Fold these 2 entries.
Entry 1:
Amino acid sequence: MTPDRLRLAVPNKGRLLEPTLRLLRDAGLEFEDQSRALVSHAENVPLDILHVRTEDIVELVGDGVADLGITGTNLLAEADVQLPVRLELGYGRCRLEAAVPVDDEAVSFEQLAGRRLATSHPATTRRFFGERGIDVAIVPLSGSVEVAPRLGLAEGIVDLVSTGSTLIMNGLRSVGCLLESQAVLVGRPSAVARRDATVDEVVTVLGAVVAGRRRKYLMMNAPRRALSAIEAILPGLASPSVIPLAHDDMVAVHAVVEDADVWRMLPPLRAAGASGILVVPIEKLVP
Ligand code: AMP
């Protein structure tokens, strides 16, 4: 590790490991697959990747050991250090939820007053209920939170949920969501000046990958007279590109659209006269 290289801390195991390495590769960073080693060096950018425990990343960035880090919003909320979020990365999505046994009568946060809540997120839970004036007792646990009610340790839990199947398997039911979480890129509050340009580069390129993943490039041919109907269906990032074709009165229309809208757009585009419609992935998008 040399001092003039930027340091990015990433998870070395767990749920965020694979999607994080995929993001770095999709961004075009070339590095050896050394996720078992502590450090790997990017070959094409002055950047060292520190492979560390997910739970340690906020602290390492806060202490200045790393300039940037990838972690979950939930871990950021739980830490003492306040770090600026430079990018939301769109994976590792989960919710921090309060839950009680299925036969419990509580259906709101207020009805949890006076309960013991087991959680591996004590600071976030304390803050959430404190801000609402609801008095709960926190039972801090580092894992297996969902079994606490059955063991008689607590009357409810606050835990991370993505599909909800762990709650169901443990005879629990959600009462509400305290926090929505996803993977985020965090930075040091004040990055050393000489490294700022590289920090901005990393933010721009990772941001371009995340933005590209959410969108598709749509190409189609259409008779020129269908153009206004087609334009009305395509909101796009900006106005679509319209390119004349060799055959009379035919044009090619290209546009960038939200991935989530493609499904809804295809039938009306076809009905409006578009043909040869291609939906193409976008590797990177810099707005
Ligand atoms: P790990 O414990 O190392 O597998 O990573 C846990 C991190 O992954 C959490 O802190 C969250 O940011 C994220 N995550 C995403 N979905 C879930 C989930 N269903 N349960 C726990 N963590 C999740």
Entry 2:
Amino acid sequence: MDFELKTLDAAGAATEKCDVLVVLVTEGFRPGKDAVSQLVAAALAAGHLEAKPGKLLQAYRTEGVTAPRVILAGAGDGSGKKVQAAIHAAAGAVRSSGAKRMAILLPAGSGDDAVRAAVCGMAESSYVYIATKSKPEGRELKRVVVGVAQAGVHKAAFGRAKAAAVGIEFARELGNLPPNYATPTRLGEEAQKLAKAHGFRCEVMGPKEVAKIGMGSFMSVAKGSAEPLRFIVLRYEGAGKSDAPTVLVGKGITFDTGGVSIKPSAEMDEMKFDMGGAASVLGTFRALAELKPKMNIVGLIPSCENTLDGAAYKPGDVLTSLSGQTIEVLNTDAEGRLILCDALTYAERFKPRVVIDIATLTGACVVALGGVRSGLFATDDELAGQLIAAGEAALDPCWRLPLDDEYAEGLKTNFADVANVAGRAGGAVVAAKFLQRFTQAYPWAHLDIAGTAWKGGAAKSSTGRPVGLLLEYIWAQGAPAERKAPAAGKSRARAAAV
Ligand code: BES
Ligand code: MN
Ligand code: ZN
């Protein structure tokens, strides 16, 4: 979809050539003399329209308005969140109407947050999955004009919003692909394609290379599958060699049956989304190609299936991780932490500024936070604060959960350095405590996106989260000179207490 930012007032919107004009109406709406303003004023006065987000009024062939269809949409106080809700409602009304060109008139006085919400909200609501349909239907909307009082003021925010929309869509598309399409091999190919198209460095390793490195934990998870594993290393270089990179690590389980500790059948298909972390790293890189920030970013993706045959790993097996720590497998369904731990150790070789892993890690996180906020864990308060702020700004929020050492008690075992599961209590924290053992060399954050990476039910679809959060974080880090690295020493001291 093409977005265009344009200087428009209500009078300009009235003569804008498009199939449907969406007018966002805020609480402080002040009418002018043009046809659009008069329409809004009359509707408000008659009580047929309210400025509340979600409220809509549609008009057809209105005198003085070029667009045949006009949708008036309440947008509350005009904040990003309210504009997003208004856009979702309006997009719902336009869906399958055949409209190809849309114009959105943002309220006078709109900020960058409203511009972002309009672009990302419209991209999100008009996304239609077609990759494995025999008839590619539903992607009618081609062009969206976003009208603001002064286009020049919002140009930078508009560019970032478009980049985010592209990255989010890329992640969604990969996330939605069926598991017989989105195999570890396919993820590797997608990374290579991205690298070729946008000039990233990319290395895709297979079973032999990964064995040679010594990723014994990751390799064990892949043993029961006919699909060969892949370990993807993507590098974006926007700053000098001496600038320590931000490393993003994404869980790439392309299907999670649970392995020998097999999952129940109900909704097991949704475990194709278990590569949502990997998809979010690839989506973030897709957007980096547009944003071109002055920093270095490394993407690491351990990818395999967690399934079972005679060669599959089993409860009781003891694995030797890349870090040298031995791990007793007590549940083969706690596989995400087993592939991530080796990637987190591998991350050390980049001497990172910070490492952030993103994973659909625990059902317990879904119980704790539902589908609204991702779970955030961090060994560094400054990094945690930056990620929380980025999530709020991007309308892709997260919530910090604790890392007290007492949560790791249940991981003790007589047969290895650590077990891969403890009891059910505090499961999201226990998983994070397991990962923390492998992150002592750098400031670290972990995003558990088990509840936010996709939606189930009738609206079943990947969400592309947390690409918005990650891009906002990256952007807020700024150029190398002005960047403040979280104090590595401080966080090392804290991590040593594990
Ligand atoms: N991929 C799942 C986590 C998950 C479950 C995400 C449901 C979204 C919805 C993960 O690999 C897993 O199976 N975790 C187990 C861990 C348990 C065995 C300690 C879980 O959460 O049940
Ligand atoms: Mn699992
Ligand atoms: Zn999993």
